[in-house]
Amino acid sequence: MPSRLPSAPRTGRPRSAAADAAILEATRAALVELGWSKLTLGDVASRAGVAKTTLYRRWAGKNELVVDAVAVLFDELELPDRGSLAADIEGVVLQFAAILDRPEAKTALMAVVAESTRDEPLRERIRTSIVERQKRLVLEGRSRAQARGELPLEKDPTAAARTADLIFDVVAGAVVHRALVSAQPVDEEWAARFTRLLVGGLAGD
Amino acid sequence: MPSRLPSAPRTGRPRSAAADAAILEATRAALVELGWSKLTLGDVASRAGVAKTTLYRRWAGKNELVVDAVAVLFDELELPDRGSLAADIEGVVLQFAAILDRPEAKTALMAVVAESTRDEPLRERIRTSIVERQKRLVLEGRSRAQARGELPLEKDPTAAARTADLIFDVVAGAVVHRALVSAQPVDEEWAARFTRLLVGGLAGD
DNA sequence: CAGTTACGCTACGACCCGTAGCGAAATCTG
DNA sequence: CAGATTTCGCTACGGGTCGTAGCGTAACTG
Fold it and tell me: CA distances (Å), A84 to each of A142, B103, B160, B199, B202, in order?
C-alpha cells in the first residue's frame, strides 16, 4: 500500500507489523464507540497499546488513518453468480447495505468524503483505496449478463468504461443515499424495487 | 423553524433577527474558506460581529448551525417544464450538481450526514430541513409525466409514495456519488447518459 | 416605573493537537 | 562482536478550541 508515510530504508529497526494491525483495529473499535468527531488519535494510540508518536510516524493524521482502517471492510464484497442480472444486482446491493450498517463504516465513509472535498490527496486516496477497487463488481456483473444475453455487448472500450462508471455511481449512490441520508432500511423489498427500476427503467412495464 | 434552541416568550428584549441572518451568512462564508473541520464557532461569531455566547444561546453546536446555514441552498431547486420527462430529469440533475459544486454545500452536506449517523435528532433535522423538502421535485415531475402519458398512473397511494422515495434516492444518490465520491464532473453529457439509463433501464434499447 | 430577556465581554478549566527530546530496543553491516 | 541506523515508548510542551459562568448593559413589555 502507498498508504503510510515515507516508510523505510532497509537498515535499522523495522517497523512493527503487529503495531500496524493493532492500530487499525483500534481505530475501527474507536469509531464504533465514539464515532468520527469524538475520535482522538491519543485514544487510538492507547487502545492499540502504542505511543502516540508512533502513530504520527506512520500516518499524517486522522483522515489518512481512518481511510486505511475502513477500506478493508469493502473488500468483503463478492458477486456470487445467482443466475440472472437482477439477482446479481440484488445480492450485491444487500451486501453493500450490510457493510453500511456497521457503525464504523457509515460514520467513517461520509466523514472522509466530506474532508476530501478540501483535500485533493485524500480524495485520490479514497478513489484508489475504496471506489476504484469495487468497480470490479460492476465489470463482472455486466460481463456475466452479456454472456447470458441479458445485456448487449459494448464494443468501444471507452464507452464501456463510462457506462460502468455510471452504473457504479447509480448503484452505490442510491444505496448510500437510502441508508444514510434518507435513513431508511435497505431490505430485500427495497433491493427488489431498486433492481426492477434499474433494469427496466422508469417506463419499464 | 424548529431549528433554534428553546426560543422565547413574549416579554423582555427580543432576539435580533439581523444577528440570525449574519450568523448564518458568516457560517457559509467560513465553510467556503475553512471547510467543515477547521470551522470554529468562535470564528463564526467574530465574522458575524456577534459574541460567541450569543451563538450558543441559539444553537446547540456546530452540527445544528451548519444544517440551518446550508438547508436554504437547496431551496433554489426548481423544476421548469421542459416538455418531457427526460428533459425534466436532466434539468434538475444539472441544478442539483450546480449546488453541490459550491464548496460550502459539499463539505457541509457530507459532514452533517456523517455526524447524523450517531445523532438521531440531527438525522431527523436533516430529513425535515433538506431531504423531505426536495421530494416535491419528484412528485411534480412524475405528475407531469403522467399527465403527458409518459408514465402510468399509480393508484395505491402508499405504493406511489414508496416509488417516489426510491426515485429520489436514485437521482440524488447518483449525483452525490458522482460528484463527491467518484469526484467526476456532473456535466451535460453525464446527465444525459444518466437520464437515459433511468428512463430506459439497463436493458433499454 | 419595574420586570424580563437578550446582548457583549471577559475569563476559565478541560481537552486535544502535533512536535521535540530522551534513552532503550531491534535490526543490518562489516 | 562492535558500530551504525532506525523505531519505539515515554514525557513534556505551547497553541488552539470547547462550552460555560458571571457581570454589567441594552431593549422591550405592562
Answer: 11, 42, 27, 21, 13
